[in-house]
Amino acid sequence: MSDEVDVNPEEEAKDDDAAGGGKKPATGLLPKLLKFIAIGLGALVFIVTVTMLTVNIMNKGGKSQTVVPLTDSYAAVKKQYSMFTLIGTIVTRTRDPTPKNISVDIIIGYDLNNTAAATELTSRLYELRDSVRNYFSGKSASELQPENEARIKNEIRERLNTTVLDKARIRIILFDKLDLYDME
Length: 184
What we know:
Elements: H1 9-20, H2 29-59, E1 81-84, E2 89-93, E3 100-111, H3 115-123, H4 125-137, H5 149-163, E4 170-182
Antiparallel strand pairs: 1-3, 2-3, 3-4
């Protein structure tokens, strides 16, 4: 009977604990950790997919709605102009029943370094002065209020470009002085 070994399960477990230092091997920890990582990655993929589908549906597959169109008013760099200041101060009366005096000093802006425009503006100086004087003498004091200044500048620019100038183009009108006062 020497072939028979008396096996006692309690003694065998004690022998295994003594050999391994008393700790149980962590055989179930790695599969659980991998399972949670896989669930997390699956959730992340699901969230990204749903987000992308929602954004595409909201935009209808087109361009973003927040694109700002570039126009002259949004341009980062303002245009520079050459300035014509030889017109000087023009004094005239308004067309009111009790006329008021108006004194205006205009600066004309034209394309930068355009010598042909500078030559034409200089050669037509008296026509420019006369046209501006006629413009202001045809207006009433209520039409020449500060809130109408942008409209006045546009009207003068269009008037000078169409009636006085041939080749040169005025791009901007500036007022160095625009005074309206009672006659003395």
